[in-house]
Amino acid sequence: MNVDLMRKIDRRVGVPLCFLLSIIIWISAKIRFIKKKNPDLSKALFIELSEMGSAIIVDPAMRKLRSEGPTELFFAIFEDNFKSLEILKTVPEENIFKMRSNGLGLLAIDVIRFMFWCRKRKINTVIDLELFSRFTALLCGVSGARSRIGFASHHDEGLYRGSLINFPVRYNPHVHVSVNFMALINTAMGKHDTPYATTSVSSEELILAKANVSTEDQEKVRKKIKDLYPKWNGEKLVLLNVNASDLLPQRRWLPDNFATVARHLLEKFDDVLLIGTGAPKERDYVQNVVDMVGDERFVNSAGVFNFDELVPLYSISTLMLTNDSGPAHFASVTDLKVFVIFGPETPALYLPLGNAEPFFLGLPCSPCVSAANHRKTSCITRPCITGISPDWIKGRLTEYLNEEH
Predict the structure, then answer these.
(1) What angle do helix axes 3-12 and 134-142 make, rounded to 10 degrees?
(2) Which of 10, 169, 233, 371 is the most exposed place for a label (fewest CB within 10 A)?
């Protein structure tokens, strides 16, 4: 479904629906004499539909709830994105509700399916990870869960979602999203009773678990690399993720810049193999960059590795240069050094939790996308991303590879 269409529906349809459902739930609670009490955490459902990276970032928070609850974890996510949950397998697949997003009719059917799914599993608590989405607030409301935890604007104006969230947490746009996620968990656990998340979050709590990668899986990846480049003899693997999600195309660094960096690395180091990564639908985009370089040691792997093979690929590689997108977060479950190019977003909020380092100009206008505008920007010139010099990146990657020799 078109992203702008989803935003329009969320605003124009979501606001009145949130208002109406809030009234219905309030009346129902009064009639049934339901009183607010501390959340029952025996069965907790997380909702994060559209952001694959956030499904990784929230993992430390989910593990904390599971270990201290104890809690059986459930998750609702768009079908196209659920693979991100399989990386760390914190939530069993049978506990994942996969919602289809390729049409309003299917989406409406899945909302009804979701209502029955939640009741069959006796979900007690719902934790909404989305930043002020009315659709996910509505899902919380129809879930049947007594406790509904999510972000609230509190004294801030706008971002109306009714009163569907009965355990609100004031979203803090000045701290990393992983800290905000942990604030939701601390609220669920009764550590504070106001929308202000006054419980401190230590850096140790935000350490991301590492994926278990078998030698067999690594060997399968090595064989595919050998098929791509038969001359490969164990040279260092440098990954270039040159594309970014269509949800925010402004995050894409210019293809010419990626090609400039690639040519430099191939000229500077004779013991590296460059691999352009991407999904099958990105193959032409990646091939364009590969063709600009015109060197046999830069190969196009878009569509070659399936999703399950990405983490094994990351585990045997030396570094990755990527736009701010999902692969940066997928790689964070390994020890791979990841260099992430930020523009309309900020690393202060979305830097991967692993071994990541940002390139970010920090212009006065950055970040221009946020929860307040539902991550929409009309900027076309994109100086925050086009202004990042290839020389800056060439110098830092060269420095890192020299350290690895």
Answers:
(1) 60
(2) 233
Reported pTM? 0.92
pLDDT value of residue 150: 95
pLDDT of residue 161: 87
**Element of type H or E holding 139:** helix 134-142
**Residues written for the chain:** 405
- Is residue 21 within 8 A of residue 141, CB to CB? The reply is yes
What's the pLDDT band for 88 if we cut at 50, 70, 90? very high
| Domain-terminating residue out of 206, 234, 269 | 206
**222 and 81 assigned to the same domain:** no
Q: What's the confidence (pLDDT) of residue 330?
A: 95
pLDDT score of 3:
67
Are 166 and 232 part of one and the same domain? Answer: no
pLDDT one-digit tens code per residue, 298-352: 999 999 999 999 999 999 999 999 999 999 999 999 999 999 999 999 999 999 9
Strand positions, DSSP E, 254-348: 272-277, 298-300, 319-323, 337-341
Please report, for residues 156, 169, 181, 186, 348, the alpha-carbon distance to residue 196 in angstroms, rounded to integers and kept in the order given.
13, 6, 13, 11, 20
Where in the sequence is the domain holding 227, given as residue range(s)?
A: 215-404
Q: pLDDT tier at 181 (50, 70, 90 boundaries)?
A: very high
Give yes or no: residues 147 and 290 share one domain: no
Q: How many domains, the chain?
A: 2
Angle at 258 between CA 343 and CA 388, to 5 degrees: 35
The greatest distance separating any two alpha carbons of the chain, rounded to the nearest whole angstrom, comes to 75
d(CA 236, CA 234): 6
Where would I find the H helices in 269-350?
A: 283-293, 310-315, 326-330, 347-350
Let me know whether 396 and 330 are in one domain: yes
Does 100 lie in the same domain as 223? no
CATH number of residue 374's parent domain: 3.40.50.2000
Digit-coded pLDDT (tens) for 35-64: 777 889 999 999 999 888 899 999 999 999
Q: Say if residue 158 is in the same domain as residue 23.
A: yes
Task: Give Cβ neighbours of residue 180 (< 8 Å, ≥ 6 apart).
Answer: 151, 169, 171, 172, 197
Asked if 334 and 328 count as a contact pair (C-beta separation under 8 A), the reply is: no
Residue 196: pLDDT over 70 = yes
